[in-house]
Write the structure tokens for this entry.
Amino acid sequence: MTDKGNCTQNRGMNRDTIKYIAMVTMLLNHISFIFLEPGTLLAELFTAVGYFTAPVMCYFLVEGMGYTRSSKKYGQRLLLFAVISELPYCLALTGEKIIGFVGMNMLFTLFLCFLIIRVMREMINPLGKSLALAGLILLSMFCDWAILAPMFTILFVNAGRDDRKLKKAFLTGTLVFGVFNFLGEAGNSSMGINILHTILSMAGPAAAGICILRFYNGRRSEKHRNFSKWFFYWFYPMHLLILGLVRVFLFA
């Protein structure tokens, strides 16, 4: 047990470092979706890189629920910033108009995932738990990363801190994500192109798993903790607002 702990602490990436990487990959994904021509090499690469972010966010949400001093305040922050982010999200991702409703943003999804964690850890009645989980998963269909983010969350909760189970969780999530992408592109391109697209799309979640399982040392950064905490909340609405304003200026 001690050897395993020492091995983990000697790894090179702390939680904040991985989150900063996830912010960059999310930015690239949104740049691709908003500004780049679909199907081009750069667009495909930026989009695929961005798939690193959601599994990382779900993983640290599950982990964070074990460390937070107040899960109630944690959930309230998620919901507050989900509301703050909705207009920037719609502004950035609206197609040809200045702004229109495009769905609920990823922080709403994470809030649902937060509720999923609470249900899984706190509800005792099996039937009630199953119905609550089904309802939350269905609600995610109105949000970004519908179904998939709740799936990753459930896999991570069930895996706990067991490395073998976590490997299976990332592998299962990556494979299911690939199936979703393959089915979503069916009929839009040839079989060969669709297979290549699917493999490329799976690279992001797979990289997230490798990063956390092989390089994460289980700790936060020792420096600028308060800055990082609030940066991760504010980055989401602010980068969407900036991208949305640029989109309107260029194309509207």
User: Anything to note?
Assistant: The chain has a mean pLDDT of 93.
